[in-house]
Amino acid sequence: MNPPQPPYTAARRRHDPEIRGFASDNYAGAHPEVLAALALANGGHQVAYGEDDYTGHLQQVIRGHFGASAEVFPVFNGTGANVVALQALTDRWGAVICAESAHINVDEGGAPERMGGLKLLTVPTPDGKLTPELIDRQAYGWDDEHRAMPQVVSITQNTELGTVYTPDEVRAICDHAHAHGMKVHLDGARIANAAASLDVPMRAFTNAVGVDVLSFGGTKNGALFGEAVVVIDQDAVSHMKHLRKLSMQLASKMRFVSVQLEALLAKDLWLRNARHANEMAQRLAEGVRAVHGVEILHPVQANAVFARLPHDVSERLQKRYRFYSWDEAAGDVRWMCAFDTTEDDVDGFVAALKEAMAR
Questions:
Q1: At what angle do helices 191-198 and 269-289 cross, to 10 degrees?
Q2: CA–CA separation, 183 and 232 (whole Å)
Q3: Do the Cβ atoms of 233 and 68 come closer than 8 Å?
Q4: CA-CA distance, 100 to 77, in Å (whole number)?
Q5: Burial of 166 (0-12, 13-18, 19+ CB in 10 A)
Q6: Can you tell me the distance from the alpha carbon of 284 to that of 288, in angstroms, rounded to the nearest whole number?
């Protein structure tokens, strides 16, 4: 007699696709063009661990965006990209200067410290952006064996507060860091949104101004999963292939990561998605500014809106729309727009906000 089988059910849709929110651009699904690319890459056998045709072609695509010397290393996720990149830029005694609000400091569960063995030297910033003057608060003590050695400056573009560095601002940071013998890493989880906001190619604030290594983000811009480390200055890193494997970021079926990034970057899907998300954030900000009693906290330069509103209003509104508190004590919240956010989504949220404030 066959043993009884557990009550499994066939695959079916288990969520309501009409439910929308403003918690994170990670909540959005994959763009249809990315899903189509995944289907094209399926079938047959391709060499594993990055020796496939899709990863090979991605190298050419990446060089079109970040220069002839650029080399791409696809990974699973953004934390992995940052940890691998920062490990490749530092010695065991090295430290990384970053904004206090940086994702590597706030939202990566200690991974840079525990997995990468890095010391983070943080600097408070009013808008999430470092400057040469702010960097100098931590850029000292290279010969002091009692202090971790500052070897890297890490910036986020766009920042965790939704602000955007201009190319000149990134150049000033790179020139200052290099003058002190340090390297520059750019966390580009939302690099497409920054380029769309500035209306410049991504190279304008990366390889053209001195960035050594960047983490390229795909998931927040329409990919199903997958990010990449892009090495611009080959002399700035060592043993990238080994570090990626050691950090558990080497995909065996890498073609399925690479083809998604290719789908975004080979033409203009990355830019279309980012521009739309940014436009929806601007629409949201305009609607919110008309609501008495709600304060917008930072310039809306990409796809994020930070606001301050009464706690009871946030609690009522969160029953209808998901979003995160940024500083619960102060009443600060963050609203994110994604590539699939619609005008109706924004207008419905603003109407709900007005209703909650009126109560």
A1: 70
A2: 11
A3: no
A4: 22
A5: middle
A6: 6
* CA–CA distance, 180 with 150 (Å, rounded to integer): 9
Q: 246 Cβ partners below 8 Å, 6+ apart? A: none
Question: Cα separation of 260 and 240, whole Å?
Answer: 21
Q: Which two tokens stand for residue 225?
A: 């999963």
What tokens appear for 253 in the block? 């079926």
> Would you say 28 and 280 are in contact if contact means Cβ atoms under 8 Å apart?
no
pTM: 0.95
Q: Are 322 and 353 in contact (CB under 8 A)?
A: no
Give the residue from 213, 163, 216, 223 showing the smallest Cα distance to 189. Answer: 216
- pLDDT at residue 304 tops 80: yes
Distance CA 150, CA 169 (A): 20
- Structure tokens given for 218: 């795909």
Q: In what helix (H) or strand (E) does residue 187 lie, and over which residues does it extend?
A: strand 183-188
Instruction: Give the Cα separation of 339 and 36 in Å (integer).
Output: 17
Tell me how far apart the alpha carbons of residues 76 and 162 are, in angstroms, rounded to a whole number. 24
Q: Which amino acid is at 294?
A: V
Which of 56, 86, 264 lies closest to 186, judged by CA? Answer: 86
What is the torsional sign of CA 179, 234, 63, 196? negative
What's the pLDDT tens digit per position in 135-189?
999 999 999 999 999 999 999 999 999 999 999 999 999 999 999 999 999 999 9
DSSP three-state, residue 120: strand
Measured distance CA(342)–CA(17) in Å, rounded: 13
